[in-house]
Amino acid sequence: MKKVINTPYIKRVKKPWGYEIHFTQDDLPYMGKILHINAGKRVSLQIHDKKMESWYKLSGKVIMILGDKEGNLFEQEMEEGVGYTTTINQKHRLKALEDSDILEVSTPEIGTTFRLEDDYA
């Protein structure tokens, strides 16, 4: 029988747009975090060459900016009770219209993140 990992773990990471709460340990084969994005702020427009992310809005009002297969950007508001997944090399960005919390699960922090636009660089 496999042992359950039950070591309490939490890490808060300050970001210029708010903060992240990591609730999974770094050595696991996946990452779990809560993104808190302050009203009027947005994360970088980015792509990942090896990482996929899935999001679920916990609170607030959030706009996703996503790239289609041709790389054109479109906006879509996150709905209540719906999950969203970005694919490898898909452009993506989150923008909060009010203080917002998003649950994010993903592959581990692997590969390279390319920041195409960053409001805080």
From TrEMBL:
Superkingdom per UniProt: Bacteria
Membrane-crossing residue ranges in chain numbering: none
InterPro entries xrefs: Man6P_isomerase-2_C, RmlC-like_jellyroll, RmlC_Cupin_sf
Entry GO MF terms: nucleotidyltransferase activity
Descriptive protein name: Mannose-6-phosphate isomerase type II C-terminal domain-containing protein
One record GO biological process: polysaccharide metabolic process
Organism whose genome encodes this protein: Candidatus Daviesbacteria bacterium RIFCSPHIGHO2_12_FULL_37_11
Domain Mannose-6-phosphate isomerase type II C-terminal per the UniProt entry, residue ranges: 11-95
